[in-house]
Amino acid sequence: MSFPPVSNPLYSVELFPPKTPEGMDKLKLEIARLNALGPAYFSVTYGAGGSTREGTFETVAWLRGLGIETAPHLACIGSSRDEVREILNQYLGQGIRRLVALRGDMPSGMGAGNSGDFRYANDLVSFVRAEFGDAFQIEVAAYPEYHPQSGSPARDLENFKRKVEAGADGAITQYFYNADAYFAFVESCRKEGIEVPIIPGIMPITNYTQLARFSDTCGAEIPRWVRRRLEGYGDDVESIRAFGHEVVQRLCRELLAGGAPGLHFYTMNQSGPVQALWRELGLSD
Ligand code: FAD
């Protein structure tokens, strides 16, 4: 259930916008370290409802100022068409040609009853294509272990197909630790005639409590044996990191050997774990 390795895989990294000036200063150092690895592009997350708007713009502007290829995320829920148009015009002016188009989840306490002009990510993709033609390469989100709100895997796949038919060029997945889930998802997509590249999202394992909390929210499964081992390390951060590194490195090798068209690293704004993976996997070669 895998595919032949591809000849030119794409490796990219993701950042989130810091909340404070000190966080931004730290991030600038991490950006320099990550950029030395030579990723194809940096993506920068965006809080639905504009909750990280200024931070996203600042981070994107910093990256562009360094001449780095940047893909801002844009989460449409809670936004108006005019707001989205304005943001995209700003990005075009900064030489941005790549976007990650999402629905997003409204932060709690923000905007009940204000879902804005867009309902789903496919609405955003259609809007970008209608207003900006092919000015942007558009990536969308994919869920090999299925989106937590989806009625069924078949329905989720149909909804993923809507985004591709609306004009997405490719997809980045939610993170997962089971390569079979990815390959099975890609196979289902191909059977449905969805041919765009689907790049696995890779979450390094550095902090078990945080990872368990995220995974519960976003529906990503931590395999039982991995969970048990991580729990067993308690507060021993070094052992968690070393074991996490082994698990994720093995996953990446399996994915690339099985034909994944690249890897997108959720860096959590820390260069160290990604640098170690990048080096050992020989991604700069
Ligand atoms: P959609 O594709 O719209 O899907 C959402 C749900 O609705 C799914 O259950 C789907 O099956 C269903 N659905 C979709 N279309 C339809 C339709 N037409 N009719 C009926 N049902 C439908 N969140 C942020 O806030 N900011 C970020 O920067 C961000 N970056 C992300 C990057 C990646 C690579 C990934 C995988 C996720 C990211 N997220 C981000 C999280 C994402 O916003 C959430 O997972 C959100 O719940 C769904 O967004 P989506 O774009 O996948 O939504």
TrEMBL record:
Residues of the signal peptide: none
UniProt xrefs under InterPro entries: FAD-linked_oxidoreductase-like, Mehydrof_redctse-like, MTHF_reductase_bac
Domain of life: Bacteria
GO cellular component, one term: cytosol
EC number per UniProt: 1.5.1.54
Necessary cofactors: FAD
Gene3D superfamilies tied to this protein: 3.20.20.220
Keywords, alphabetical: Amino-acid biosynthesis, FAD, Flavoprotein, Methionine biosynthesis, NAD, Oxidoreductase
GO molecular function, one term: FAD binding
SUPFAM superfamilies, per the entry: FAD-linked oxidoreductase (SSF51730)
The reaction(s) this protein catalyses: (6S)-5-methyl-5,6,7,8-tetrahydrofolate + NAD(+) = (6R)-5,10-methylene-5,6,7,8-tetrahydrofolate + NADH + H(+)
Annotated pathway: Amino-acid biosynthesis; L-methionine biosynthesis via de novo pathway; One-carbon metabolism; tetrahydrofolate interconversion
Biological processes per GO annotation: methionine biosynthetic process; tetrahydrofolate interconversion
Enzyme class: oxidoreductase
UniProt cross-references to Pfam families, sorted A to Z: MTHFR
Family affiliation: Belongs to the methylenetetrahydrofolate reductase family.
Listed name of the protein: Methylenetetrahydrofolate reductase
